[in-house]
Structure formats: C-alpha cells, structure tokens
Amino acid sequence: MDLEGATAAAAQLLSALGLDMDSDHRRDTPARMARALTEMLRAPSFEPTTFDNAGGYDELVVVDRIPFFSLCEHHVLPFIGEATIAYAPKDRIVGLSKLAWVVQLYARRLQTQEAMTQQIADWLVEQLDPKGVGVRLRAEHLCMSLRGARAIGAVTDTTTNRGVLADDPARREEWQRRLSS
Ligand SMILES: [Zn+2]
C-alpha cells in the first residue's frame, strides 16, 4: 500500500468536499484517514494450524458470535456484525481461534457479505476437507443505515452450507436448530 499517496488523495478528497482542513485538529486528518483505511484493509497473517482428529470427534463444532467488521466494496463504508461457523470434522480438526482468524482474513478487505460468507466456507473445505461446513454472517451495513434507505438497525443475514450440512437432512436440521437457538 502507498501510504503517502493515500494521504495526498485523502487531503484532495476532503478539500473537494469543501471542507476546511486548516486547523490544529484537522491538519493531520488526511494521514490519519489513510492509516485507518490501510489498517482496516490489511489482511492478518496466521498459521492455519490443524490437528489429527485423534478422538474421532463426530459431532458438529460450532463457534458462535465471532465479531467482525468489513468494508463494503460498493461504498467503502463498514458493515459490522457476527459470524457463526460450524463444521463436521473428518480426519482433521482446526485450532478454534483459527476460526476467528479466518473471519478476520476475509473481513479486512473490500467485501460483499455474500462473497465473504462463501470465502470462509471455501477456506474450511480447503484446509480441513471436513464432512460439512456451515457459515452464517449477520451484519448491519452502514451504507444502508446511514445513507440511502437509512434503515438503521436492519440486519443482513447470509448463510452457506456445504457437504453434510447441505445434503444430510439430520445434520442440516441440527445446524438450523443451532442457528435459531
Ligand atoms: Zn455498500
């Protein structure tokens, strides 16, 4: 990322918007804006540690209420919410914190909620080759609540189901039940 270029562009944007940036508080605002955006758009690096499913764990692993925010690729405004991730293991299980990290991995970029939901599921399928995966994201999009329709508090709910969480009626039903509890 070009921080200097982003700072200059932020200064230009603010001035094009007719804002007077010549005060003690505002002088460094373009640089702060640029730093804040680069921080929000920089993907974290982490080791996707997986382990042998030595005990043969055969039930769903569900991690709920993983907080995230991302930036919508249409308005570059935040959407803020929670993720629920479930998987049915086969031979490998994943360190639980990695499920929070993978949400961060796909959140810190320009996104749509729909794509992010699928990317998280794809990552799990690729890393673990599990029997099934389910991902649900619920988020408030500030581009919808602070402008346009101004639907403050409206929540967008997206899910994707793979493997047994899509195809096996019992597993699918269990996952749906977990989502509504
Ligand atoms: Zn948007």
From TrEMBL:
Gene3D superfamilies: 1.10.286.10, 3.30.1130.10
GO cellular component: cytoplasm
SUPFAM superfamilies in the cross-refs: Tetrahydrobiopterin biosynthesis enzymes-like (SSF55620)
EC number: 3.5.4.16
Entry annotated with the keyword Nucleotide-binding: yes
Principal EC category: hydrolase
Catalytic activity: GTP + H2O = 7,8-dihydroneopterin 3'-triphosphate + formate + H(+)
Biological or metabolic pathway of the protein: Cofactor biosynthesis; 7,8-dihydroneopterin triphosphate biosynthesis; 7,8-dihydroneopterin triphosphate from GTP: step 1/1
Pfam families per UniProt: GTP_cyclohydroI (PF01227)
Binding site for Zn(2+): C72, H75, C143
UniProt record, GO biological process: one-carbon metabolic process; tetrahydrobiopterin biosynthetic process; tetrahydrofolate biosynthetic process
InterPro entries referenced in this protein's UniProt entry, alphabetically: GTP-CH-I_C/QueF, GTP-CH-I_N, GTP_CycHdrlase_I, GTP_CycHdrlase_I_CS, GTP_CycHdrlase_I_dom
PROSITE patterns: GTP_CYCLOHYDROL_1_2 (PS00860)
Keyword Chaperone appears in the UniProt entry: no
Family the UniProt entry places it in: Belongs to the GTP cyclohydrolase I family.
Subunit structure: Homopolymer.
Name of protein: GTP cyclohydrolase 1
Taxonomic classification: Bacteria, Bacillati, Actinomycetota, Actinomycetes, Micromonosporales
